[in-house]
Write a structure and sequence with these properties.
This protein is mostly helical. The protein has one domain (12-141): Fic-like fold (Orthogonal Bundle), CATH 1.10.3290.10. It is 59% helix and 3% strand. It contains five helices and two strands. The protein has a two-stranded antiparallel sheet with strand order 1-2. A hairpin with a 2-residue loop joins strand 1 (71-72) and strand 2. The chain is globular and about 50 Å long. The chain binds adenosine-5'-diphosphate (ADP) and magnesium ion. Adenosine-5'-diphosphate (ADP) binds next to helix 5.
Length: 143
């Protein structure tokens, strides 16, 4: 059975296909329209806005924290009960070096705040942090 969606699709393969098409189209728009520049790199608020933008045509939970526990393979992501606290802690994690940014991304993956679409939205979120923090390091090097 497919995850409940706004497209009215019940076949999971069809949903996967449409989801890929629509979220790729939305991702391209996100990079073109300047919205990314308005987000605060490294904050959950930025990830929430990215997720909402990618998936709002598909899922009613776009940009909303999940209300169920989820796992992939043998790995259980942060239980719903601790998710709010985990996201507050991640917001406060440093992001000045490459290693700190990777550590922050890993913690966000462990949190997996949304019911679906975490990988896609988190990679755009990561890209934003890398650009903001490491490009400004570069500027300093040449100052
Ligand atoms: N066994 C695992 N342990 C930890 N993280 C995983 C595991 N399997 C997949 N992931 C992460 O979860 C992401 C998939 O989560 P999901 O919410 O389905 O996002 P998407 O739908 O965008 O792929 C992958 O991109 C990867 O980052
Ligand atoms: Mg998925």
């Amino acid at each position: 059975m497919a995850l409940e969606n706004k497209l009215g699709l019940t076949d999971s393969a069809m949903l996967e296909c449409e989801e890929e098409r629509i979220s790729k189209k939305r991702a391209a728009k996100l990079f073109e329209n300047g919205i990314l520049d308005t987000l605060e790199a490294g904050k959950f608020s930025a990830l929430k806005a990215i997720h909402k933008y990618l998936f709002e045509e598909i899922y009613s939970f776009a940009g909303e924290i999940r209300t169920v526990n989820i796992a992939k393979g043998n790995f259980r992501f942060v239980p719903v009960m601790y998710l709010g606290a985990a996201l507050d802690n991640i917001d406060k994690m440093p992001q000045a070096t490459f290693d700190e940014i990777v550590e922050k991304y890993v913690e966000m993956n462990i949190a997996h705040p949304f019911r679906e679409g975490n990988g896609r939205s988190m990679r755009i979120w990561l890209d934003l942090i890398l650009k903001k923090e490491l490009c400004s390091l570069d500027d300093n090097a040449y100052a």
